[in-house]
Amino acid sequence: MRYVLADLDLAQPLPSLELPEDAGGAGVLVRLNDRPVAFFITALQPRRLNPDAVRELVWKNAWINITLELLRRELPPRDVVGQFPRVTVAICTRDHPAMVERAIHSLIVSAQAAAIEGGQFEILVVDNAPSDDRTAKIAKSFESVRYVCEPKPGLDFARNCALAEASGEILAFVDDDAVVDRDWLRGLRKAWIENPDAAAITGPVIPYELETTAQVLFEARGGFGHIFEPRRFGPDCRYIRNYPCNAGFFGAGCNMAFSRRVLIALGGFDEALDTGAPLPGGGDLDILYRILRAGYILVQEPRFLVRHQDRREYRQLRHQMYTWGLGMMTYAAKNYGHDRAHRGDFRCMILGWFRETAKMMFNSAVGGRFWKTDLACYEFWGGIVGICGEYGRSKRRIARIRKRFA
Fold first, then answer.
1. Do residues 276 and 356 both lie within one domain?
2. What's the first-to-final CA gap in the chain, in angstroms?
């Protein structure tokens, strides 16, 4: 069952909402004067809502976010002085030329909306171990896009290639299966100027489409995170349980930006994580954790928004949940071994993750409508594989790859 997507601005007259025959609900992005403030998905009955019913639906599902945004607007404006530095936006990809073209178009639109000139902004396509030249041809068809090939297979190899090639002081990463919101660069600029000490900025990720049951299920579970509150994390956040070990709370790899200087100081991304098919995850968790662990500032900005194309087929979603568990526990096992000072926090985080995942398995098995038992089981099994030596196995695989390309 598919859901329709609606983009509603409360500062404008609200439209009616009518579902086609094959749709069972809607995913709604709520804006206020163009600023994203909330996203929710909901089943809908009746199938047609007039503007008053749409307003009631939005208020019911997003009243907290709307109220907080209205309160923030009553606060005196911050005294902000600063200039926005040059930005490199990296799209790391492998054999997805059509998606790359779509992502590039969205970045160009966002740059135009933010009135950012070419001297302040570049798009860098990193083609990771491609099987053909289709992506190269797409990238080179845009004057504003720079293309580079990274022959070693693995996402963190590609990310480190982007780090070496980037000319911007800010290095942002957008997945090839994502498109940025028109306000994305304005949001990045706002967050960076208001937080000149920030080393990383992340933002919300909402669905690009909700055309299949698998996509609706994933977003009903929470997706990549629908957080629309501006937040700031740093050394003074020890009140958060197991901070900063629960790195999935801070953002997702499909939408993140960094101070290039800080990334270089930290040694870049760990190339034994996010290695492709054997271990397609963990690299984003690891770098966000290491930034906070080193005492830097991480900011979440609601306007720094992307739409991600979730897995369309149920078998793909099942595999994704396995890799989520695998990546999370591989990241946790790596840092449990490397960071003795935080071993207690990592132990609590690991035990809590397995407890919550087991609880999800149980609840879905006894009739929960919100998630599927097999999806929870796959995620749990991925976690077991990750905690049982996957990081060591991955390091050995990476050593062989480096040797092959030396």
1. no
2. 49
